[in-house]
Design brief:
Helices cover 33% and strands 33% of the residues. By secondary structure, the protein is of the alpha+beta class. The strands form two sheets. The protein has a five-stranded antiparallel β-sheet, with no helix packed on it. Strands 1-2-3-4 form a four-stranded mixed β-sheet. A hairpin with a 2-residue loop joins strand 3 and strand 4. The longest helix is centred in the C-terminal third of the chain and has 33 residues. The relative contact order is 0.10.
Length: 144
């Protein structure tokens, strides 16, 4: 979930949204401050754990800001300035490729989604192979 803060609702969002989203099962909650003046940081991320959200820890520094890693997306995010506003900038940590949400970046989103799906399929196959191996070594009582 990515929300864009506005001056009129920022205080409510800051205090209540993360807890409410955790309660309904949202795994990650991101807040973007497009004006760059509401909370001091242009982008903040929270991950759900036991019905609450904890702060996403930085994974790398860029200028005066930080990259934050989304485990759900498999991407790094940071706030950046574009034409006087703060925007979300995304980076594929495997390739270092950066992009934002503009229409011309849709091809990049597709490639990243395909790569992530392929990686996930490989992980599932590896886990299935391990399970078969463990089951074979455990003997017949393992399947009871």
């Amino acid at each position: 979930m990515l929300e864009v803060l506005s001056p009129s609702t920022a205080e409510n969002e800051v205090r209540h949204r993360a807890m409410e989203y955790a309660r309904i099962g949202v795994r990650e909650y991101w807040r973007l401050d497009p004006a760059g003046s509401l909370e001091g940081r242009p982008l903040e991320g929270y991950t759900a754990s036991k019905g609450r959200h904890g702060t996403v820890e930085p994974v790398g520094r860029v200028g005066r800001g930080w990259w934050l890693r989304s485990r759900v997306l498999g991407l790094d995010l940071r706030g950046g300035r574009d034409r006087g506003a703060t925007v979300a900038i995304f980076r594929d940590p495997r390739t270092g490729e950066m992009f934002d949400g503009r229409a011309e970046d849709t091809g990049r989103w597709g490639r990243i989604a395909e790569n992530w799906a392929s990686d996930s399929e490989e992980r599932v196959q590896t886990l299935e192979e391990r399970l078969r191996s463990l089951t074979a070594h455990a003997g017949p009582e393992a399947s009871e």
